[in-house]
Amino acid sequence: MKQYVHSYYWDIRRYTRWSGVSNSSAATVIEAKILKEFHRIEKGISLPQPREWFGRETVERIVGLCRAYVALDESDQTVVRDALETLASYSKTFETAPPEWWLEIEPEIEGLSRELGAGNPGRGGRTPVGAVVEGWATDIPQFIRSRRSIRDYAEKSVPQETLDQAVSDARFSPSVCNRQAIRVRFFPRGDAADQLLRLQNGNRGFGHTASHIALVTGDLSAFLTPGERNQVFVDGGLFSMTLINSLWSKGVGTCCLNWSVTAKQDNQLRRAINLPENEVVIMMIAVGYPASAAFAANSPRLGLERVLRIGPADD
Hints:
The chain is α+β, with helices and mostly antiparallel strands and 315 residues long. 48% of the residues lie in helices and 10% in strands.
């Protein structure tokens, strides 16, 4: 029992220290707040009938946060451009004349745009759904059902370009308020990967044959309230699933390796790779091309009636 208590205490201590709850002035926290706030505007203008000139306080917060953010050396101008583009899209959404509060804040928005200067245009705002769904594949169900965990890998290494493409796809995973707090590192087959595998419980007999071991982590500074203390694991799971599916679409197999460990093991991994304290480990993933004679577990699924629940729970 002592071991359980210590591990939970360790989680609380890390979240309290490194999340946005107590680091409100850190660049990564301000960035997370900007992403959260302008995504609220994006969601609002995507509604069937958005309320005219809604969200005054949200708009004002976005401008104030952007102003504070661009003053920092660590700021990412892309985030600010996306926020400003969202505000531009917001202002074009409504048919009625802008209210006085918007006319007062608009020069400050324009000033921020001038301060950023020329560069790639922002990507925030809204897009017609028809433009998004055009070209969707028609065999998505078959693809989803075809994925299996692979535990027998070929000697051929997965090219870095393929890994880059998969991570680029995984960037589009859902995340709370579009905060995009998940990170991934790839360790190629060899000493560094073996060091990680020795700390994980469940890769015996196959982990060392993988081309790479991916380590998925989440940046706690993107989470801003006590209520979000577990959100990093939700977002990390979504990101990992997209990453796995993208790799599978490229012929690359994977096997999720859980990180169900005590605080002691977690600290051993942190020291081994010098993992920043504000990042929490979500999982490892074995990555590689399946061996030519590889088998995969059938892993039969429970029936639909066991999974699907409609309406309130039965008494």
